[in-house]
Amino acid sequence: MTLPICFMVMPYGKKETSLPIGQQPREVDFDRLWTLALKPLLEQLGYTAVRADQDLGASIIREMIERLALSDLVVADLSIPNANVFYEVGIRHAAKKKGCVLIAADWARPPFDVAQMRRVSFPLPDGTVPDSAVPAIQQALREKLLELRDSATPCHELAGFPELTLERSTAFKEYLLQLAAFEEKVNAIRLNVDSKVRAQKSEELAQQYVGRPMGTPVAMELLLLLRDCAPKNWQQVVTFIDALPPSIQQLPLVQEQRSLAVSKQGDHAAAIAALESLIKQHGETPERRGLLGGRWKKRYQEAIKNAAGATAMAPTFLAEAIKNYERGMWLDLNEYYCSSNLPRLLRLRNRQGDQEKAAHIAHGVTLACERKRQGGTGDEWLKPTLLGAAFDSGDVEKARSLADEIRDEGAKEWQLESTLSDLEVAVALQPEGAPRAGLTAVLNELKALLPPKA
């Protein structure tokens, strides 16, 4: 009796994970993972299990493509970013309608496109893959492999693939024209100088699409438009998300924004629970850790403002905020959102070494912001973040230089009205001395740039 063939796509040998030190191993022995856990499991499931590096013929690429196209099942390990694995998954997705299952260690952080695809997670806390780890790995994979092996691959979810018709091509062109017209409406709203008009128009445009079929690009544009241009109506953001098709609702980015909106309405605990669940299911990113840190920061701020003063839980909330922001910072030092929140929190905690740590991190934020500014990238909060970092680091010269830019470009360009309170906190948290006095003088100059309140 000839058994069906399962072709295993994975790295081989010992490979570094290239992830920050934390809950994941620094290195994984993929040969041992294959030999002890994956190959025996596939054989138990009734397959002849073969692996990519077992190809011995002269035409390695041809044989690899044949196996990808002809095998009854392909299992691909995405635990670490590996170009060969991604390439082979793409071939299989195009070659076969079904029979491709993606797996990854539970600490894996696949790139954005791959992260949206269904995959099976398995525990791998020790990259040496000790014998004791094998049962848990196999248990996590066994049922899910059987469940997903008959799922359609992304390419074949497109009707008619690969022989797409001219009629479909024409419809696609029409769709692109409609999408371009939609984006023009969105851009016009964003560019309107009147914040009240922006909020009204964004809500009206979103309402036009509620209950109507819409693709992911349109849904995401509307969601971010509501978030940015109607920020006081967070319930509408939640309502809009909950009315989306389930396939869009479940996207990690959509779930992130829903958690933010829930927190903005005051339910920080529910937002924290949702974000922790999202990280567990889809892995951590600087954005998710930053959002989680922000929810803990809100809980801390509310705790110290209550009638009884600082509650017993306030230090715990502060510690959780710092922990998550630090985690997000180490995931990507170039993403300044997490790190920009740390200096003031560290100074508030004020443990031994926190003052020095806060100054070092603030300098790092400055470098990350300048890097994005020089590259012509960044968001509307890049400049205010850069200004805040100068104050956080006690860099009077940098703060004065940026104040000159604000005079030239205008306070609105630097979100000065929104940022001023943060700068006041940064000055108050600076140790007594020349930097604090110098920053106070710059702060007063910046206040003078704002129009007087009516």
CATH architecture identity of one domain: 3-Layer(aba) Sandwich
Parts with pLDDT < 50 across at least 5 consecutive residues? 54-58
The number of helical runs is 20
Distance between the termini: 87 Å
Order of helices and strands: EEEHEHEHEHEHHHHHHHHHHHHHHHH
Kindly estimate the percentage of residues that lie in beta strands according to DSSP: 5-15%
Radius of gyration: 26 Å
Word description of this protein:
By secondary structure, this protein is α/β, with parallel strands linked by helices. Mean pLDDT is 87; it is low at 54-58. Strand 6, helix 4 (112-115) and strand 7 (120-122) form a beta-alpha-beta unit. It has helices at residues 30-44, 60-70, 83-95, 112-115, 134-148, 166-191, 195-209, 216-229, 234-242, 246-249, 252-264, 268-282, 286-305, 314-331, 336-349, 354-374, 382-392, 396-409, 416-429, 434-447; strands at 5-9, 14-16, 27-29, 48-51, 73-77, 100-105, 120-122. It has a 5-stranded parallel β-sheet with strand order 4-1-5-6-7, sandwiched between helices. Among the domains are: 5-157, Response regulator (Rossmann fold), CATH 3.40.50; 168-233, no CATH class. The protein has 20 helices and 7 strands.
In short:
With 454 residues, the protein is α/β, with parallel strands linked by helices.
Q: What distinguishing features does this structure have?
A:
454 residues, alpha/beta, two-stranded antiparallel sheet, 7 strands, globular
